Structure formats: structure tokens, C-alpha cells
Amino acid sequence: MTPVSFTCIIIGVLLNACAQLLLKAGVNAVGQFDITAANILPVGFKIATQLPIIGGLALYVVSVVVWIVGLLRVDVSIAYPMLSLGYVVNAFAAWYLFGEVLSAQRLVGIGIILIGVAVLARG
């Protein structure tokens, strides 16, 4: 994998991860709610107008464009597993930003993901 190809893939992964974090921030701002026929439109409107939600969706669009450029240069059998790096980024970002728990079991899983990505990147 060339440096340019690797950069495209990593930027796509990071944009996707950031989009996920923005979506989480947006729904956190809305708060817990029940989905009922009576409140689906007001809650849907409230969600759709949250700036973090809008930003997250916009980042998804940009990440898809960058991802397509990456797929032009890298085999999908290598590129697609690299998306799992997003799990690693989001686990640490969610711990830092949202106070989510990083248990020993999650850290072991993150380690396994990193080993898998390293094996794939070398092959």
C-alpha cells in the first residue's frame, strides 16, 4: 500500500469515526425519548435540526467520497478491514468525550483489532 493510498484510507476512517461521534453528541443533546406515533414528528424534527447531527451526516458524505478514492487504489479485502480502526478511535474518543467505560475486556478487544489491522496492512 502506497503512502497516498494509506492516507486516503485513514482519512476516510477518521472522518467516519468523527461523524459517529457527532451523531452521538447530537442525540445526547436531544436526550432520552420514547418513539410513539404522537411524538415521532416533533422528536424527528428536533433530532434533524441538531447541529452535531447535521455535521455528522455531512462528514459521512465526505468520508464516502474519500473512501471511494481510497478504494480506487487499494483492494477492498485490505481497505474494508481498516474500517475497524474506527472502533479503536471511537472507543477512546467516547471515553474521553462522553465518559464511556473502557473496561479491560474492551481494551483486549481493541488490542486484537490493532493486531489484525497490522497483519492485514503488512500482507
From TrEMBL:
The keyword Nucleotidyltransferase does not apply. It is found in: Cell membrane. Its main location: membrane. The keyword Nucleotide-binding does not apply. It is a multi-pass membrane protein. The chain crosses the membrane at residues 51-72, 79-98, 104-121. This is Permease of the drug/metabolite transporter (DMT) superfamily. The lineage of its organism: Bacteria, Pseudomonadati, Pseudomonadota, Betaproteobacteria, Burkholderiales. Keywords: Cell membrane, Membrane, Transmembrane, Transmembrane helix. InterPro entries: EmrE-like, Small_drug/metabolite_transptr. It comes from the Bacteria.
